[in-house]
Each structure stands twice: as structure tokens, then as C-alpha cells.
């Protein structure tokens, strides 16, 4: 293999276009995709908090199947993936959790302890470049304090988080997604102005490089408790709560910056839902809309705008699930 080394920056490139910074792939054709054809959905709330993990195959349609159990029953966690390992961080079961646990996505079974967040958080978001997972924002148990902190893990190892940088402002109920290089966080709510205000903010990071987030653009409307996922080009955000729960799907082109554009509608309006994608489809599952917890799974073809189509059902209606995908 032919390698080009810049000894001043410690950057390495090879003939296929892979870029390494201290051994971490940050771009080019061989960046590991943090997604795959199996969606894994962990935890949630359905009157009580659950530890159930369930899964389904994104290229097909049908109902979810039991996968195993999280180490701790909880909802409002965040999840990301290396493509082979799925990680769930934070959440609440009424008391706040700093737990990080993981599963091997190809193999059903119970989750294993990974490490801990810097403190317990709920309603946080996560994204990954296939090597590094970043957890962002979140709130305390009572949702009266929200956080601007981003922190990261190396997904292939186990251990506690390391500081990454800060979001533009404190934020809970936001959504995270990635194209394999850039991580994007959209929506949520903040108390930085004194009272709780829902946001239309979209912000981004380069996952391989620690530092603070940068403004990307705006969602089509202020939205908290939103879900997001992506393929290698386009990110889609779905559902959430504005002045009421919404069914709106909107999209961005991740490599550029700018405002989101309307994509279509979910089959039902709902907030606090989960989302996972492969290279072709994005799925949205669970959530809440009065009078109850939703079990619907919807899907869209990411490259084509339009309304979502029914995919199947979760094992049970679940509010506040967290989801990722892999193989």
C-alpha cells in the first residue's frame, strides 16, 4: 500500500483516499460507515421504563423481534454505532443514568457494561464516524438543567468518556446523525435564556477532531424531542414537538451547510421517537402521541423526498427509545 505522510501534521493518506489522523479515519472513500442493515432499538418508556432491546432488518418490512436486554432499564438515552457494535449512553428510569453499555449488532443477546458518561444525563444525542462515538447535550433528571457538553468514546474499546468540546448552547431533546465524517445535531430545547425555549438550530462537528460545534443552519421549525439518521450524503430529521407533536420529516445535505428542507410526513405525528438508517432507508420508530405510546415503524427512501410508508411494529409501543444500525 502506498502511503503519503505529512510529518508536520501527522496526517496520512493512501491511494484509496483514506485520511488518517493519529490512526483514526476521518474521510475519503474508505471511512467506516456507522450504519448497516440491522436496526437495534434499546429501552424506552411505556408506563414504566424497559430494558428490552429489539431489532429488525431495514431492507425488508415487518415487525421487530426481541434482541436482549440493556444492563439498566431506561428511556431517553442516546445510541451510536461502529457498524458492528452498538452503544447506548445515559437515560433515566426516574433517576438519572450515566451508564454506557453495548451490544454486538450481528449477535442477539444482552448488553454489556462499557463505561460511564461524565455525569448522568437524559434526552441527549449521539453520532459516530465508525470509530469514535460522540454524546452531546442532555438534561438532568427533572429536565430543569440542560448541558452543552460533548464527550466521546472509542467504540471498539471500553471505558469512560473524554471531553470533546461544547455545543453552541445548552441543549436537551436534540437529535444526532452523521455521514461518517461530520456529526450534526438538530433541534432540542435550551434554558440559556432563562426559560425553556425550543430550538430550530442545526450545528455540526468533525468527529475525528475535538472542538466546539459550528452553526450549520436551521430546521424548518423549532422542534424538540426529534429523531435523526443519515446515509453517507443526506441527513433526515423526523417528528418531535413544536407547539404540538408533529409528523414533519425534513432533510439536509451533510457535507454542506444551510437550512433544512421539507421532505414529507411520518405516518403519525409523534415526539420522543427513535431513528436508524442504512445506506438507502431511514426508519423512525416508537414515540408518543396522546393518548398513548406508539409502536409504529415508518420508513423513507433517503434519496427521494415523500411521505413515510408503514414498515411494521415494534414489539411494544415505546416512548423515548434510542436506536442505531449496523451489521
Task: Explain this structure.
This protein has strands at 3-6, 11-14, 19-21, 24-27, 38-45, 49-57, 65-69, 78-81, 85-89, 99-104, 112-116, 125-128, 132-136, 149-154, 162-166, 175-178, 182-186, 189-190, 197-198, 201-206, 214-218, 227-230, 234-238, 248-253, 261-265, 274-277, 281-285, 288-289, 292-293, 296-301, 309-313, 322-326. Strand 2 and strand 3 form a beta hairpin. The protein is built from no helices and 32 strands. The radius of gyration is 18 Å and the shape is globular. It folds into 2 domains: 1-30, no CATH class; 33-326, Kelch-type beta propeller (Neuraminidase). It is mostly beta strands and 327 residues long. The protein has a 4-stranded antiparallel sheet with strand order 1-2-3-4, with no helix packed on it. Strands 7-6-5-32 form a 4-stranded antiparallel sheet, with no helix packed on it.
The gist of it:
The chain has 327 residues and is mainly β. The protein contains no helices and 32 strands.
Task: List its salient traits.
single chain; 327 residues; mainly beta; Neuraminidase; 2 domains; four-stranded antiparallel β-sheet; 0% helix; disordered N terminus
Task: Tell me the layout of helices and strands.
Layout: E1 3-6, E2 11-14, E3 19-21, E4 24-27, E5 38-45, E6 49-57, E7 65-69, E8 78-81, E9 85-89, E10 99-104, E11 112-116, E12 125-128, E13 132-136, E14 149-154, E15 162-166, E16 175-178, E17 182-186, E18 189-190, E19 197-198, E20 201-206, E21 214-218, E22 227-230, E23 234-238, E24 248-253, E25 261-265, E26 274-277, E27 281-285, E28 288-289, E29 292-293, E30 296-301, E31 309-313, E32 322-326
Antiparallel strand pairs: 1-2, 2-3, 3-4, 5-6, 5-32, 6-7, 8-9, 9-10, 10-11, 12-13, 13-14, 14-15, 16-17, 17-20, 18-19, 20-21, 22-23, 23-24, 24-25, 26-27, 27-30, 28-29, 30-31
Amino acid at each position: 500500500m502506498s502511503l503519503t505522510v505529512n510529518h508536520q501534521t501527522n496526517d496520512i493518506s493512501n491511494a484509496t483516499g483514506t485520511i488518517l489522523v493519529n490512526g483514526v479515519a476521518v474521510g475519503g472513500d474508505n471511512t467506516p460507515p456507522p450504519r448497516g442493515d440491522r436496526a437495534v432499538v434499546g429501552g424506552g418508556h411505556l408506563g414504566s421504563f424497559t430494558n428490552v432491546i429489539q431489532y429488525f432488518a431495514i431492507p425488508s418490512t415487518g415487525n421487530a423481534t426481541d434482541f436482549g436486554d440493556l444492563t439498566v432499564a431506561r428511556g431517553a438515552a442516546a445510541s451510536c454505532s461502529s457498524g458492528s457494535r452498538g452503544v447506548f449512553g445515559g437515560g433515566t428510569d426516574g433517576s438519572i443514568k450515566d451508564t454506557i453499555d453495548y451490544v454486538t449488532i450481528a449477535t442477539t443477546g444482552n448488553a454489556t457494561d462499557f463505561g460511564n458518561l461524565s455525569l448522568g444525563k437524559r434526552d441527549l444525542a449521539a453520532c459516530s464516524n465508525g470509530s469514535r462515538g460522540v454524546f452531546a447535550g442532555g438534561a438532568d433528571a427533572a429536565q430543569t438543567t440542560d448541558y452543552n457538553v460533548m464527550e466521546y468514546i472509542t467504540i471498539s474499546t471500553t471505558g469512560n468518556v473524554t471531553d470533546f468540546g461544547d455545543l453552541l448552547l445548552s441543549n436537551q431533546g436534540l437529535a444526532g446523525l452523521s455521514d461518517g465524517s461530520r456529526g450534526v445535531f438538530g433541534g432540542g430545547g435550551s434554558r440559556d435564556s432563562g426559560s425553556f425555549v425550543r430550538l430550530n438550530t442545526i450545528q455540526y462537528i468533525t468527529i475525528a477532531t475535538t472542538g466546539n460545534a459550528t452553526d450549520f443552519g436551521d430546521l424548518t421549525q423549532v422542534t424538540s424531542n426529534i429523531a435523526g439518521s443519515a446515509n453517507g450524503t443526506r441527513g433526515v430529521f423526523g417528528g418531535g414537538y413544536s407547539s404540538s407533536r408533529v409528523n414533519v420529516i425534513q432533510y439536509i445535505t451533510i457535507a454542506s451547510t444551510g437550512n433544512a428542507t421539507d421532505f414529507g410526513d411520518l405516518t403519525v405525528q409523534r415526539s420522543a421517537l427513535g431513528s436508524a438508517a442504512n445506506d438507502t432507508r431511514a426508519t423512525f420508530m416508537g414515540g408518543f402521541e396522546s393518548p398513548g405510546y406508539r409502536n409504529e415503524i415508518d420508513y423513507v427512501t433517503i434519496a427521494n423526498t415523500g411521505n413515510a410508508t408503514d414498515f411494521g411494529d415494534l414489539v411494544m409501543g415505546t416512548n423515548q427509545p434510542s436506536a442505531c444500525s449496523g451489521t
